[in-house]
Design a protein that fits this description.
Four Helix Bundle (Hemerythrin (Met), subunit A), mainly alpha
Length: 231
Amino acid sequence: MNRYEKAAAVGVALMLLAAGAIFLYAPDDALQGPVQRIFYLHVSSAIAAYGCFAVVLVGGIVYLRNESVIADRFARSGALIGLLFTTVTLVMGMLWAKPIWNTFWTWDARLTSTLVLWIIYAGYLLVRRLAEPGRQGARLAAVVGIFGFIDVPVVHFSVTWWRTQHPGPIVVNNALPPEMLATFLFTLVCTLVFAAVLIAIRYRIEALLDAKLRIAEPIQVVPAQRPEAVR
């Protein structure tokens, strides 16, 4: 196995261990029952998405400063993986909301701002897809990624800035029993490692795509100038 295959195997193994902790170690919640187990992956995926979009932010800033191809590749990779984890966050939240709120969706501040975050970075990827490859498209995407990150703190602090149906920050408020807290922290670490592995793999794919694009570009041959006829 190459290093990317090994990293992928480690990432998957960690997520399986996290699943074991969620279903075998963590106790049932006294009020919500088994559905509370969604919390561990739901919150961990949200934090992983924040981290991925931070990669887009830093990559965009670095690219606008010195047009680093490496920074641009990291930004592209972070946007795709961040969108994946945001999707997981939304789906997990909806699965939790149905038995608890009796509905899959409500236009709560946390849910709405998270949906906006998903739309912003889906738009980022759309810009990358539709724009012509090169400097102009990369700069435009970098601006979208930088300004899009403004929604990350909005999502995170929405439950404290506004009155919402969504539960408050129970981890910060130390509202979890020790077994649940340990399970959450372990799941969070596993999810962050898995996100980093996915970004690394995606970066490698982006590098291969860039190389393929350079090879496919037609080589412009400048015709040789004929020497002037000797008079």
